[in-house]
Design goal:
The chain has helices spanning 56-72, 77-90, 132-145, 151-165, and strands at residues 4-5, 8-14, 17-22, 26-28, 31-34, 40-43, 48-54, 99-104, 109-112, 118-119, 125-129, 174-177. It is of the alpha+beta class and 180 residues long. It has a single domain, classed as Aminohydrolase, N-terminal nucleophile (Ntn) domain (Glutamine Phosphoribosylpyrophosphate, subunit 1, domain 1, 4-Layer Sandwich), CATH 3.60.20.10. The protein is globular and about 40 Å long. Belongs to the peptidase T1B family. HslV subfamily. The active site is at residue 7. Na(+) binds at residues 163, 166, 169.
């Protein structure tokens, strides 16, 4: 049975602002299953924002685990991310999950994967999903050549560029800013 998946998620830290956004497309094989999926979740009143790509059910499982880790480690986002990545890699059930996450607070942007990776990306740009390389290229160019834009504007434009190129990404965007 095919899994519901595919998307583009972008997080950008720029000039003291952090924004994260995703398109709304979910595909089942090579068919659009839904065009308005919300892949962005705010935690702790918006102080931490997450985005996910991959199997939706798997992503929700990981989101719940991440929230557990946040509670266990006094809302220390980096520590919770590392502990989630360790458990994801070593736990028999979790290791089968097919998803990736971006998590961000006002100071850090991280990518978490099931291989045990917790990556703090270069230039404050994190991208995951089918259109991630298109969005990353656009975000890098925007940061370099249009630094007057806000983080939120850069996320929006990066996602729109990815949607113009990637067949698994659409223009139904949800973008959130991280609160202080």
């Amino acid at each position: 049975m095919e899994k519901l998946k595919s998307t583009t998620v972008v997080a950008i830290s720029h000039q003291g602002q952090v924004a994260i956004g995703a398109d709304g497309q979910a595909t089942l094989g090579n068919t659009v299953a839904k065009s308005s999926v919300n892949k962005i979740r705010k935690l702790q009143g918006g102080k931490i924002v997450t985005g996910f790509a991959g199997s939706t059910a798997d992503a929700f499982t990981l989101l719940e685990k991440f929230e557990e880790k946040l509670g266990k480690y006094s809302n220390n986002m980096k520590r919770a991310a590392v502990e989630l990545a360790k458990e994801w890699r070593t736990d028999r059930m979790l290791s089968k999950l097919e998803a990736m996450m971006i998590i961000a607070d006002i100071t850090d942007v991280l990518i978490i994967s099931g291989t045990g990776d917790v990556i703090e990306p270069d230039l404050g740009i994190a991208t995951i999903g089918s259109g991630s390389m298109y969005a990353q290229s656009a975000a890098r160019a925007l940061k370099k050549y249009a630094p007057q834009l806000s983080a939120e504007e850069m996320v929006k434009e990066s996602l729109n560029i990815a949607a113009d190129i990637c067949i698994y990404t659409n223009h139904n965007l949800i973008i959130e800013r991280v609160s202080e």
